[in-house]
Amino acid sequence: MTVDPLGPELPTSVGLTHPAGRRPAGSGVQRAFWLVLIVAVGLGFALRVSQPALGSPLVVHDDVRQHVFWVPRLHNPALFAGDWIADYYESQAPAGYRAVYWLMTLGVDAMLASKLLPLGLTVVLAAAAFWLGLTLWRRVDAAALGATLLVWSAWQYDDVASATPRAYALPLLALQLAALGADRWWLALLILPVQAVFYPLGCPLAVVTMGLWAVWRAGGMRAFRRALPDLLVLGGVTLVALLLVWLGQSDAARFGPTVSAAQARAMPEFQPGGRASYFVPGWYQFWLRSSRSGFALGPTDPLLDDLPVLVIPFSLALLLGGWLLAGRLGWAARPRVPRLGMLLVVLLAASLLLFVAAHVLLFRLYLPARYVQFSLPIVWAMSGSLLWVLVGERLARWLGSRTGWAAAPGRAGPAGLSGVELSALVGIVLLTLHPPPPGTFYVTGRQPAIYAYLRQTPPDTLVGALPADSNILPVFGQRPILTSFEHALPYQPGYYLPLRERTEAFRAAYFAPTLDPLAAVLDDYGVDVVIADARVLERRRQAERERPPALERILDRCGVLREHDLVVIPAPCILAAAKESQ
């Protein structure tokens, strides 16, 4: 008797009703055991990676400098009041994201909130992935291993760790897919507006995936009419989500439209080495490694000779696909894969479709990588886990036929686990023995005295410093800055061009041989404090001996605080020195 490699047919209906007889796999005790295990292991991954940040108040995620620095003004509007940079980044923040930070910062400061939030999201991700595995494969071992592998993959990257809107992308997508797999169509629909207020870029992928899934479950294009009621409801919910996105982005409209592809190609900021380097050379860098244009395969695994970390789940998924193909061709016994596994194929198709569309409509759908970097790990992790337990099942049966133990999948072995479950446990143990490394995507504040000084100044104090020196000042100093490399994202020219103009003006005045240009910039922009980099000024003096920077000459006279190479100078002292030199 041959076995359908996709398992038995499932009934289809217009409402995607729950097929009779499909109950959660395993007993309640079994599911509770595996859920507790994967949550604990997932939190272990999260704590290990985020150890640098959790161990020091002066260490934060790289992207926190952009997307969280302004959060304190949710409770204190005097902070960053009228600040061009803070206004822009708050306008980009979805309503749900702001609401969570508002609630969390009732009890803790924004920086601690940004470190605790990823831990909570990890729990949600682990539980959602476990539910997804149960709905897809109807077995707790594959679900547990798949969830662990997905959390392991997620913490190789900085998305969940970032505590930014994209940190919600993977947990919400996994939860929505689990709802689809469990035929909770209305729950999957309700998650769509939630995505709109937490991570709007997740909505296109969700809509396309749900649309394709409804058509497939109805019997394909030949039975399109059967899917039409679900598609109409999906369309209505999509309109609601679009309305929420529009309302959430209404404030951002004042910064103008998104940069066009033609504009971006002419801007150095999008070239290699630029702030948003998109047009990188080489097909591997552009199509595979890049986290903007490609499949975001940047993180590498030293145990795999620095191959991408996703090679592990991808290879397992590829082997499962090869096994299915070999079984269909009669070259091997067919693996029994439930038909609900088609949901992963639908997700893969939707992701690649939007990936191509984002390239064609460059920047109108933001970055192409955003449509594959969260979905593909789900495909690889869930498929790879099934292959692992199927092979473990075969091995258990083979051993059972020779030893009399574990001949049946349900026969208990050590610790009350069957031979099949032990194979999943072995896979989880292997992942814990090779956990994600401590995060390299954290940055450290190295001038605590300067941060303390700035916090004692009036809330509207504007700080001028070189772009590289300004990056972390708003996070720890809690005062607006004139310019910054980290905050100079060029995707909206209405925001970026004024920022670039003030950057160029300040940089030229900073290194000018007289103080007059710097005094003029301070007056024009209302700068109250200048933070000078003594080492940079010294290097410029040595390089241009005939036109040394005048700012260096007043460091000792006007500096009120020096920490390492940075010197804090009140603007009035610079203005006074400029008048004296005239």
Mind explaining what this structure looks like?
With 582 residues, the chain is mostly helical. The protein folds into two domains: 34-256 and 290-433, no CATH class; 446-581, Rossmann fold. It is 56% helix and 4% strand. The chain has helices spanning 28-49, 51-54, 64-67, 84-92, 95-104, 110-137, 140-154, 169-181, 185-198, 202-218, 224-249, 261-265, 283-289, 311-328, 342-360, 375-403, 419-433, 448-455, 467-470, 473-477, 493-510, 516-525, 534-543, 555-558, 571-581, and strands at residues 59-61, 300-301, 307-308, 442-444, 463-465, 529-533, 561-563, 566-570. Strands 5-6-8-7 form a four-stranded mixed β-sheet. A two-stranded antiparallel sheet has the order 1-4. Strand 2 (300-301) and strand 3 (307-308) form a beta hairpin. The protein starts with 27 loop residues before the first helix and ends with a helix. 45% of the residues are buried. Mean pLDDT is 90; it is low at 1-21 and 406-416.
List the helices and strands and how they pair.
Layout: H1 28-49, H2 51-54, E1 59-61, H3 64-67, H4 84-92, H5 95-104, H6 110-137, H7 140-154, H8 169-181, H9 185-198, H10 202-218, H11 224-249, H12 261-265, H13 283-289, E2 300-301, E3 307-308, H14 311-328, H15 342-360, H16 375-403, H17 419-433, E4 442-444, H18 448-455, E5 463-465, H19 467-470, H20 473-477, H21 493-510, H22 516-525, E6 529-533, H23 534-543, H24 555-558, E7 561-563, E8 566-570, H25 571-581
Parallel strand pairs: 5-6
Antiparallel strand pairs: 1-4, 2-3, 6-8, 7-8
